[in-house]
Amino acid sequence: MFSHAIMHARDDNHWKHGTTLHFMAPEVDAVGVVARRFAEISEDDTARTLYDKVCSESISLFEDNCRTSSTGPSTNVERRRRSSTASGTSTRKRA
Q1: Where are the domains of the chain?
Q2: 2-28 pLDDT, tens digit each
Q3: CB 33 within 8 A of CB 93
């Protein structure tokens, strides 16, 4: 299996593909990307091998940014978001 997306990435000299972590909100685009990871695209990748690489990065991204405590879910990202909100900065990037 070969993906046109991989072929175009190679043609455009983009040799990585990524995954992102977001907070959920009822409004569309209410919260920007809070963390991201990338997987390298190799010469012999197929759509399946790249998918597997990115899935692995997604799991690591989640595990590195979320933990469960006795009080329930807590995230490193949530602490950063609260900190930036308190200081008047935003975690959302605008175009």
Answers
A1: 4-86
A2: 566 677 777 888 889 889 988 778 888
A3: yes
